Sequence to fold (287 residues):
Amino acid sequence: MATIVGGIATSHIPAIGKAIAEKKQNEPYWKPFFDGYVATREWLAKARPDVVVSIYNDHGLNFFLDKLPTFAVGAAAEYKNSDEGWGLPVLNAFPGEPELSWHLIESLVADEFDVTTCQQMTVDHGFAVPMGLLWPGGGQWPVKSIPISINTVQHPLPSAKRCFKLGQAIGRAIEAYDKDARVLILGTGGLSHQLDGTRAGFINKEFDQLCMSKIVNEPEALTRYSIPELVENAGSQGVEFLNWLTMRGALTGAVSKIHSNYHVPISNTAGATLVLENRATARRQAA
Ligand code: DHB
Ligand code: FE
Fold:
């Protein structure tokens, strides 16, 4: 049976990828940020996931404004990385897990989430930068990946409530998979940031701290924010928090916080990470 070992949320800022490539982890600007991932990797070594379902947003690489699915699920044997314009090194391709992808797609559509299926999908910094943070060292990826892209770019965006429900449907689908797999759910992006317009550079520490706290045991409280309220509180790109909420929805067991880190600013963004363990087996045995 497949088990959801836990969830990790992390920012995916392109400058992180550049700092990794230039080995700047110990420079004063970067150290407080990169130090936040040591405990994350320690937990990963114990959790031993073999598949990562990564909930992220494409930034105009695989999808553009002309055709932009609200929810898209990868079903490819591998996912090539490409740089959509930040000058980032291209990382090794990420091996896929098509059988679990199709199981997930079948289950989501049966659950009335009419997702776009992608048998070819190129992944940008929103997917690749977090992978480089979790498994440093040059891209010998020790896990299979299933990318799920959520539209956080072109309005109308899916609501926080809808994304949380998508996460719950992802969690149910994985738990119903009858092959052995240890699955990590990753949610990338955020926290507060706004890259454009008169509020460019906007960061809201108070709201970020509220989100990081509530998402652990009261995630439903955060689904009450409308998209305009999320934009107001977190910035126009801070809506990437939808990816975090989707990740949290997929953790269907007893959730406990293992670790978090918050550091402002990294580039234009509040850099953050959160590790949540999911005791799914206990819940299933009790059911
Ligand atoms: C930045 C943050 C992002 O989430 C992104 O996709 C691009 C840039 C930034 O802070 O520079
Ligand atoms: Fe982004």
Q: What stands out?
A: The chain has a mean pLDDT of 96.
